[in-house]
Design goal:
The structure is a single chain. The protein starts with 7 loop residues before the first helix and ends with a helix. The strands form 5 sheets. The protein has a 9-stranded mixed beta sheet with strand order 1-2-3-13-4-14-20-16-18, with helices on both faces. Strands 8-7-10-5-6-9 form a 6-stranded antiparallel beta sheet. It has a 3-stranded antiparallel beta sheet with strand order 11-12-22. A hairpin with a 4-residue loop joins strand 5 and strand 6 (128-136). It has helices spanning 8-12, 19-22, 25-44, 48-61, 186-189, 221-234, 269-283, 314-326, 332-341, 392-404, 426-430, 455-469, and strands spanning 65-66, 78-83, 87-92, 102-107, 112-123, 128-136, 149-156, 162-167, 206-209, 244-250, 255-257, 263-266, 292-297, 343-347, 350-351, 373-376, 380-381, 409-411, 421-422, 435-440, 442-443, 451-454. By secondary structure, it is of the alpha/beta class. The chain has 12 helices and 22 strands. One of its GO terms (cellular component) is cytoplasm. Belongs to the peptidase M18 family. Keywords: Aminopeptidase, Hydrolase, Metal-binding, Metalloprotease, Protease, Zinc. One of its GO terms (molecular function) is aminopeptidase activity.
Length: 471
């Protein structure tokens, strides 16, 4: 039988299919196993410090060494540089080490709720002890009430002793709750508010105790009972909250979503999905042509400021450190030249189509779950404001790279024009003159305490980052 002639529409139109239909059975099996590893990672790490600790522990087993313990660097060498336990760079020296680097840059912070410096108080009318909080990043505050929460972080005592705290995740642990108001009494207090104002910032207070201490001389009995517990358990007192990084995160574990188990549901997938996939990618890079570095930053959700954010000089510090160990007599002009010749992926998530709220998407330019990693030529809002737009030339280069290596991908925007928008850390790298493009899996329910991603998109992101870093 003669083969059906391809129509002009079939010949010229773009063809994108679900990876569930295009991948071979072995690839799907590999992707599902990769997703299981990813869920274990999300279960283990819920803060920046925990992420960095996890990554260094595994990277050292794969041959990466602290750069401070090396005297020089040569092609094939693997190194890492840590910044204040909250930012990390993992690199592999290339065969052409000084002809521009290949970077994949993600962030490891996630929207959450932080504990205030003087948080603990007692409400005598309710006989409850609570912790005051200050939310971090762009959250919908009403999503965080009446759900089990955990506390993760570090406390430094007055004498400088470090105390690591992680409570609420393990079976048998107590959990903590920000109580919502019952609907029977909420008609006026909450019912007349707008949705985003249904729970206000100062109303995000965590219930941490109810038992009063049995001492007639104590006025704040429930608060004192909590302080007594904290002192006996951790050796801290109330003043030690002043020198603490304590984060409130969901206590739920990552789970498969759907009868078909095709998706991952978990907290912190923005942007630890990109962090994990690029981390796994850099671990597997061997003898690349160009020096490859995976960066993992903090503070993206609040503007990338501070000494651990992408606006710090950590990138310059890493470049200078690496260059000095390859060519000790490098000039400033050579330093700038290498920055200029480098190419980067800003590894951050996009918004996959939410079938319940499709009106916010321009469907032909929206990401579909399971169709591969999302490449965004630009992000930003209000006329691309705050965006770093990739050039047509760099987009063509990326497309050719992935077509050659059979990496499934899709090109999409975050949402409709003037619907809203968002930014990434791409612009902070583009300022050095390097080519940068945004790329990451699509997420449903982004910034919520329980985000959803397709396992195919997790796999696609890993492959995309690995191919880019392995050049």
């Amino acid at each position: 039988m003669a083969k059906k002639k391809e129509s002009i529409e079939e010949k010229l139109s773009m063809k994108k299919e679900s990876m569930w239909l295009t991948l071979k059975k072995k690839e799907i099996k590999d992707a599902m196993k990769f997703a299981d590893d990813y869920k274990e990672f999300l279960k283990e790490v819920k803060t920046e410090r925990e992420t960095v600790k996890f990554m260094i522990s595994l990277a050292e087993k794969k041959g990466f060494k602290d750069i401070s313990k090396k005297k020089s660097l040569a092609p094939g060498d693997k190194f890492y540089i840590m910044n204040r336990e909250k930012t990390l760079a993992l690199g592999v020296i290339g065969k052409k080490p000084l002809e521009g680097f290949r970077l994949v840059v993600s962030h490891i912070d996630a929207p959450r709720i932080d504990i205030k410096p003087n948080p603990l108080w007692e409400d005598s009318d309710s006989s409850l002890a609570l912790l005051k909080t200050h939310y971090y990043g762009g959250i919908k505050k009403y999503q965080w009430v009446s759900r089990p929460l955990a506390i993760h972080g570090v406390v430094y005592t007055k004498n400088g002793k470090r105390i690591d705290i992680r409570v609420g995740d393990n079976p048998g642990d107590p959990v903590f709750v920000i109580p919502d108001l019952l609907p029977h009494l909420a008609r006026k207090v909450q019912g007349e508010r707008k949705l985003f104002d249904g729970i206000r910032g100062e109303e995000l207070q965590l219930v941490v105790g109810n038992i009063p201490i049995d001492d007639k001389d104590v006025k704040q009995k429930v608060k004192t009972y909590v302080l007594k517990y904290l002192n006996e358990k951790y050796g801290i007192n109330e003043e030690d909250f002043n020198s603490a990084d304590l984060e409130i995160v969901p206590a739920e574990e990552p789970r498969d979503v759907g009868f078909d188990r095709g998706m991952v549901g978990a907290y912190g997938q923005d942007d630890r999905i990109c962090a994990y996939t690029s981390f796994r990618a850099i671990l597997e890079v061997e003898n690349p042509t160009y020096t490859s570095i995976a960066f993992f930053y903090d503070k993206e959700e609040i503007g990338s400021d501070g000494n651990v954010g992408a606006q710090s000089n950590f990138l310059e510090y890493v470049f200078a450190k690496v260059l000095s160990m390859i060519k000790p007599d490098y000039t400033h002009a050579e330093f700038l030249e290498i920055l200029y010749k480098s190419k980067a992926i800003s590894a951050d998530v996009s918004a996959a189509i939410n079938p319940i709220f499709k009106s916010v998407h321009d469907i032909p330019n929206a990401a579909k779950a399971g169709y591969g990693v999302v490449i965004s030529k630009y992000t930003g809002h209000g006329g691309k404001y705050g965006s770093s737009e990739a050039t047509a030339e760099f987009m063509a280069e990326i497309r050719a790279l992935y077509e050659k290596n059979k990496v499934p991908y899709q090109v999409a925007e975050l949402g409709k024009v003037d619907e809203g928008g968002g930014g990434t850390i791409a612009k902070f790298f583009a300022k050095y003159g390097m080519d940068v493009v945004d790329m990451g899996p699509g997420v449903i329910g982004m910034h919520s305490p329980y985000e959803i991603t397709s396992k195919m998109d997790v796999w696609s992101a890993y492959r995309a980052y690995k191919v880019f870093l392995s050049q």
